[in-house]
Amino acid sequence: MSATFKNKETFKDTLDDIVRHAGQIVLGKEHEIRLAITCLLARGHLLIEDLPGLGKTTLAHVLAQSLGLQYHRIQFTSDLLPADILGVSVYNKEQGGFHFQPGPIFAELILADEVNRATPKAQSALLEAMEENQVTVEGETRQLPEPFFVIATQNPTYQIGTFPLPESQLDRFLMCITLGYPDNRAERALLAGEDRREMLKSLKACISKETLCHLQQAVKTIQVTDALLDYIQALLDFSRQSPQISFGLSPRAGLALLHCAKAWALMEGRDYVIPEDVQIIMPHVVAHRLKPVAAREEHDLSAMIALLESVPIP
């Protein structure tokens, strides 16, 4: 065990504290909380897709407060305009000129709530921000805060009033997770316990923004062997050759797999990646990017499962 890994043991304790902290509000979803934190450690953006009322918005709010980040919520509706997200120049009579009024996108953590209820025009306002950490308004480019995360929630596309996210938008999300219904024990605690909205008001940050940035830097130091890189490449190659898949995984998807696997290894207290790290995070990194040739249902995971089963572990 290297000397630097002692720091990563401390990192694991810190990350476990965040999971426990968030778990006080979002009950019975430890694995999903870990996945969400993994995404943020890898400097990615997170899509949470599920039915209404299962805690998607609550999870985003909990993460913002637990990580000590400036937080803005944008409610996506059918009449939302790009200017409502990015901002607009307003005429200042006293100064005799136009003054840029920043939109809610200028925050460290953005909750794009029910993102697929807005039109594609409004959805596209997030593309540059999510890819380059900047926005261009009226010909002028403005930098966004650092760190900058987007957590978007999405209702199933078969529900009334939704607009499917285009592939280019989906690809901007490093990971996609679902929460699902709580188990009986968690639901009983939810029903019998204190109102979660009231608990959120008193929830304190358990780490500083500086600590979060330090954790993100630590992800870059996680070691990856040539055999592990061979495994990721084999997964990418199989997806591009499989007759079950319309479009294979892109190089960006390969980088997403690598970064998330390194972040998961840090969560587990290791300074190296193992194949199991890739397998654990792969459904959440790959499923929203793969398009099966003949999907049997909206979220057909058959192609992703075949991918894992067909490529041998090194």
Question: Overview of this structure, please?
Answer:
The chain has helices at residues 3-23, 30-41, 56-66, 82-86, 120-123, 127-132, 167-170, 184-192, 196-201, 209-220, 226-241, 251-267, 275-286, 302-310; strands at 46-49, 71-75, 87-92, 97-102, 109-113, 134-137, 140-143, 149-154, 175-177. It is globular and about 70 Å long. It is an alpha/beta fold. The protein has two domains: 3-220, P-loop containing nucleotide triphosphate hydrolases (Rossmann fold, 3-Layer(aba) Sandwich), CATH 3.40.50.300; 222-314, Magnesium chelatase subunit I, C-Terminal domain (Helicase, Ruva Protein, domain 3), CATH 1.10.8. The strands form three sheets. A five-stranded parallel beta sheet has the order 2-5-8-1-9. A two-stranded antiparallel sheet has the order 3-4.
How is this fold's topology laid out?
Blueprint: H1 3-23, H2 30-41, E1 46-49, H3 56-66, E2 71-75, H4 82-86, E3 87-92, E4 97-102, E5 109-113, H5 120-123, H6 127-132, E6 134-137, E7 140-143, E8 149-154, H7 167-170, E9 175-177, H8 184-192, H9 196-201, H10 209-220, H11 226-241, H12 251-267, H13 275-286, H14 302-310
Parallel strand pairs: 1-8, 1-9, 2-5, 5-8
Antiparallel strand pairs: 3-4, 6-7
Helix pairs in contact: 1-2, 2-12, 10-12, 11-12, 12-13
